[in-house]
Structures are given as C-alpha cells and as structure tokens.
Amino acid sequence: MLDAAVKVALAGVGYAVEWAAGGCGEFRDSPADQAGDDRGFVQSGDSDEGGGRGDRIGTFLCTEVAHGNDAAQMETTATYDPAAREFVLHTPHPGAAKFMPNTGPAGGAKGAVVAARLIVEGTDQGVFLFLVPLSDGDGSPLPGIGVRPLPQTTSSPVDHCATTFDNVRLPYDALLQGDHGRLTPAGKFTSALGSSRRRFLESIGRVTMGKLCMTAHGLGVMRHALDVAMRYAHTRHTSGMTKGRRVPLIAHRGHHTPLLDAVATTYAATLLQRSVVRQWDRAGGEEREAYERLTAITKAWITWQSRAVMSECRERCGAQGLIQANGIALQLASIEGTITAEGDNTVIMQKAGGEMLLGGVDLKPESEIAAESRELTDPQFLQDLLADIERISHTRAKARLRKRAASPLARWNSTVTPAVALADAHVHRLAAEALLTAAAQAPSGLPADLLRALHALFALRRIAANSGDLLARGRVTALQVESLPDAVEEVLGFLEPHALTLTGAFGISEEILETHPMLSA
User: Which of 487, 494, 259 is nearest to 379 (CA)?
Assistant: First the structure.
C-alpha cells in the first residue's frame, strides 16, 4: 500500500509529458505512440461539416543534400512571375535536392511546406516557406516533382526520399506570408526584418516545435525502456553469493547502480522538459530567442541522455534486451534519428555555446558561504556547485575567445570545446533545478525524500566528474572530494528499495508491458 501511495504522489508531481503549448499534439507514454514516425502534418481542406478532410499527408522540406546544418545557404529557388502571379519552384542542381523527409508513395497523396529562396525581380529576399502539393491519391509524383527513394535507415521504417522540383508552377497564395515578409500580387516585397537571416529563422520557427516533439519522443522511449529494465531486474534471479541462494538482479549493487543513475537522469530530463515547454509557451518578443536556444540545448541533451539510458537498459537486460519484442532494441535504434532531426545535436550545442559567450546566459553569482562550512547532503550546496561548473566553463571559454589567433576559425577552434561545456553545464544545472523544485512541491514524507535523493544522485555524479576544477578554485574541499563516493553510496542505498516504485510512476501502459515476453514469461 505504501508503494502504491508513493507512486500516485510521484505521478501527481507530473512525470507525464504535458504540452502547454498548442500544436504539439498529444504524446502518451507508450513507445507505440512515440515511435518516431515523422510523417509530419496532415494537410486538410474544408468539408461540408466545416472540419478538415485530412486528405493529404504533409511533410516539411527544408534541408538539402549539400545544406544540412547550414540550411540558411539552401539553393532551391522560388522565383515570382508577376505577369502570371505565380512562383516557379526549382532545384538548380542535385546538391539542392531536399533531403530526407518522407515524400514517397506510402500513405497516398502528400503535400509539403517547402523552404526556398524567394526571388523577386532578380533579388534574393531570403528563405520563405511555400505550400506545395507533391503527389496524387495513388502516391504518384505530380508533374515536375522528382522523388528518389533513399536507402532504409536503422531508425523507424519511414519512406525517406530526396525530392527535387523542375520549374514547378505555384499559385500566388502558396507563399506563407507574415510580418517577416509580404509580397503583393504586383510583386512589391516588404518586410519588418531587415536581415535575410532573421527572415530565414522566422520562416522555419516551426523547427522549435519540432525540437520539443523530438524531446518528447526521447522521453517516452527512455522511460519505457527504464521501466522494462527495472521490472526485469526484479523478476530475473541469479546467484546470491552463497551456495543454493538466488536473488533478483536488483539486489546486486553492480546491477542497480547504473539503473538508479538512469532513473535520476530520466526524472531530471522529464521535469526539465516540462519547464522548458511552459517557458517557451509564455515567451514573446525579445525573450523568444533565448527560449528557442534553451529549447534547442534541451533537445540535444535529452535525446543524448535517452540514447545513453536506453543503451544501459538494453545491457542490463542481457540477451533478452536484444529481442525486439522486449521493447528496447528497436526503440534504441530509432532514437538515433532524433539526435540528428530538427538540428544536429553537436551543432546545436556549439551554436548555443557561442551565443551564451556573447551574453546569452545569466550566470548564477558565486556563493559567499565557504565550502568548509557546507555539507554534501545540502541540496542548495549541490546546486551552487553546479552553478560553479557553469561559471568555470564560461570563464575558460571567454579567455580562449580573447586570445590572439591566426584567423576567426582558429579562434573559434580554440574556444568551441569550453563553449560546448558551458552549454552542457547550463542544461545540467537547469535539469537539477527542475528536479529540486519538484521535490519542494511534492507531498512531504517519502515522495519528497525520494525526489531529493534523485536530485542528490544526479548532482553528485556531475560534481564528481568536475571535482578537479571545483577543488582548484576552492569551491569544494579535499575532504569533500574524497567523500563524494561515500555520499553516492548512501543515496543509492536509500533509493534501491524504492526503484520499482520510481519507474512505476512513469505510468507506462500495462497493456504494452504485457506484450514483452521477458516480463510475462
């Protein structure tokens, strides 16, 4: 009964992914609901009932074969013909083919929102979006549309293709207009944004929503994998170290330590995601850029953590974890797509780190309390140390940026490593902060104690990995560094009896869990 009450309390704190922002749709906990099918939007038309017909599957065509993370340099053009009041959409060469959304025949008629350079009277006005029908009801490409299937990836079975346009005529209303750019039928262009790069960023703003969705997928499959691995650890028995005695795998510290580390990371990631969604939904004006950056680094960090957690879960399940029906291996393959989709993680972190060096981050002030008078059991001390790690990375990156260099590239090459460390430290601190905030909001007693313990485990691992920097700057004492392993052991000992309760609070569907042979054998 106690475990049931704690599970309800933990779930009540909110470990399901909620979508405060409209338009993300509903993402449930089952891997089937979050299997990475990136077919995109469903294009609809008016019906007699006033609703949408949903007669065309839609997708988003932005990156090109030769332009992935530098999509702002894309070469697909949409030239306006004022006499015909039409646009001519064209792929100038194979390197400009749109790569790699699902534009194949599977699913029938498809349409796309296509990013292309708007050319008006010979002037390139920057990248804009155009609504383009791609295929008929049988899935056959419309005239001028070229669709070349790509080899199957290791992730979800989606019909990825390279798509080209051969002087495809589009009506005037195919251009998606806004304050970032308007074009009259006569061909007069106006924009509230003077920079073509800002127009590009405004045009592809929906990618931010895509990042949130990629993150939601990562959370769904990592929580599912962790619940499966934890249940298996409680049902699979092995040697108990004495003759004739057998114990569940979870009884072994060597087995439950990585799983509990994964639990702490998963709770922190989930709560971080909830916080980011709320902030992004409320942001406006000048705040928007900062929150888009936060959304980006959250996507990078969580999808990377998802892969790490799922890999650990797969290994903890041994050979059973390799069987697709047991629910981990196939989803582990699919998570690779989220690491690249909606912005490659490495590039996201590099870009964010650079922006943070130029003023895009508010660093927490250094605590005035001496390390000697603080304890590793104090959550606020742990948070202050995470802020110290962030500040150290910022200082190191700034120093590199100010050094003389042979070229701008050489200067950036010397700066990029600590800049990425800055972005990583920032998102780690925010994730831990979200977890600690949840602990303060949880019912007193065991639920709050468990969340504080997860926060301690998550923070202590991070602090241990950066203890050299912290010690060198007097932020921790030598005795505290030596005490870190014992502090971790104490937290692990407290959490282990409640491990199944913690993953049970993820609320994974029992109906789905029953389909995994290793859990029902």
Answer: 487
pLDDT of residue 394: 97
Nearest to 519 by CA among 260, 221, 319, 320: 320
Residue-level pLDDT at 209: 78
Q: Which two tokens stand for residue 36?
A: 């990475």
Both tokens of 280, joined, read: 């992004």
What does the pLDDT read at residue 16?
35
Q: What are the C-alpha distances in Å from 47 to residues 52, 53, 133, 163, 227?
A: 6, 6, 19, 30, 44
Assign 317 to helix, strand or coil. coil
Give the whole-angstrom CA distance, residue 265 versus residue 90: 46
What pLDDT shows up at residue 359? 86
- Pick the closest to residue 71 from 168, 200, 169 (CA basis): 200
Q: Concatenated DSSP letters for 100-153?
A: EEE-SSTTS-EEEEEEEEEEETTEEEEEEEEEEE-B-TTSPBPTTEEEEEPPPP
Contact 40/59 with Cβ under 8 angstroms?
yes
Taking a C-beta distance cutoff of 8 angstroms, is the pair 65, 99 a contact?
yes
Over residues 387-442, the pLDDT tens digits come to 999 999 999 999 999 999 999 999 999 999 999 999 999 999 999 999 999 999 99
Distance of CA 94 to the CA centre of its chain: 30
User: What's the confidence (pLDDT) of residue 155?
Assistant: 65
| pLDDT given at position 6 | 62
Closest CA to 335 of 225, 217, 223, 427: 217
Token couple for 25: 């749709």
CA gap 181, 194 in Å, rounded: 10
List, in order, residues 6 or more apart from 150 with CB less than 8 Å away.
Answer: 99, 100, 160, 161, 162
Q: How far apart are the first and last CA of the chain?
A: 26
Ranges of residues in the chain with a pLDDT under 50 are 1, 14-51
Parallel/antiparallel/unpaired status of strands 86-90 and 168-171: antiparallel
